[in-house]
Design goal:
The complex is a heterodimer of chains A (140) and B (117). By secondary structure, chain A is α+β, with helices and mostly antiparallel strands. Helices cover 36% and strands 29% of the residues of chain A. Chain A starts with a strand and ends with a strand. Chain B has 117 residues and is an alpha/beta fold. The chains are: A alpha+beta (140), B alpha/beta (117). The structure holds adenosine-5'-diphosphate and magnesium ion. Residues 49, 52-53, 106, 111 of chain A line the site of magnesium ion (MG).
Chain lengths: 140, 117
């Protein structure tokens, strides 16, 4: 593959049930490309957590996944409230999620730390009131 | 431990993917918080949970898990069972509560793992 492959998804912010569909599809696509199970798992988990965050914290957004010969890049972009204090948000256990979200199994404050743990690089570009773009890479 | 032994120990009802009951599994985890499950990636094969929504199936898919046990008589919806079946994941339901179910599997040699990536 010389041309980088790009997969694009719209993530519906209204629908908790469908959250994770993009990650499921990416997992299938990466399997077809023949990437190693370990890489695929890391990409899928990081993207899944990010996708869930877009749904529960930011009314949805878009996900773009690019595959080159060197890495898989995941770009998650939303026009939600932004993150006022990134350092705090990155701490394990920090969460502003509601009890409703917690009763659905999320809101443990482990999403962003998990995303960082499973990727080789992660950048958070966020402006309060404007939105958040998270760019993650997993090296091949 | 074979997945069929999990069924026997927990007196569970298998809801899909019976063809994989012979599959061997070596570790499990029990939780109602999916992000906690997602934090420990190393070959977790079995998920025990009392949470019922499609994200349970997605979490198992992302983790390459092969078996989900719903505890304390929780029932997944037909749509959830279909999702799991499409991925070859064995789904079962038991009336046992989380503590007892985990304890029985652990005591019979299915230990947890706590390795971060
Ligand atoms: N896309 C986002 N838009 C706005 N806020 C976010 C976004 N992602 C994460 N956050 C904030 O960062 C916190 C920590 O995120 P995370 O570690 O995923 O934990 P959780 O989602 O369980 O709350 C969230 O509670 C929320 O306040
Ligand atoms: Mg989160």
């Amino acid at each position: 593959m010389s041309e980088p492959l790009i997969f694009h998804f719209d993530v519906d912010g209204e629908n908790f049930t469908s959250a994770g569909q993009a990650s499921t599809q990416v997992k299938k696509n990466l399997r077809q490309l023949g990437l190693s199970p370990d890489i695929i798992r890391r990409v899928s988990i990081a993207m899944y957590e990010g996708e869930i965050n877009m749904v529960i914290h930011a009314d949805g957004g878009t996900a773009d996944v690019g595959v080159t010969e060197e890495y898989v890049e995941i770009v998650l972009k939303d026009h939600g409230p932004g993150i006022p204090n990134v350092e705090q948000a990155m701490q394990e256990g920090f969460s502003t999620a509601t009890d409703t979200i917690r009763s659905l199994g999320f809101g443990a404050g482990m999403g962003l730390p998990n995303m960082k743990r499973y990727t080789d690089s992660m950048e958070i570009d966020t402006v309060v009131g404007v939105g958040t773009t998270i760019t993650m890479r997993v090296n091949l | 431990m074979k997945i069929s032994m999990i069924r026997d120990l927990l007196d569970a009802e298998v809801l899909c993917s019976e063809e994989s009951l012979d599959h061997e599994v070596y570790s499990a985890c029990g939780s109602d918080m999916m992000s906690d499950v997602l934090a420990y990636v190393k070959d977790q094969a079995v998920l025990l949970t009392g949470l019922v929504n499609p994200q349970v199936i997605r979490t198992a898919e992302m983790m390459d898990m092969v078996c989900i046990v719903f505890v304390r008589s929780k029932r997944p919806t037909p749509a959830m069972v279909q999702m799991a079946e499409a991925d070859g994941i064995v789904v079962m339901a038991t009336s046992k509560r989380m503590y007892e179910a985990c304890g029985m599997l652990y005591a019979n040699g299915l230990i947890g793992t706590a390795t971060h990536v």
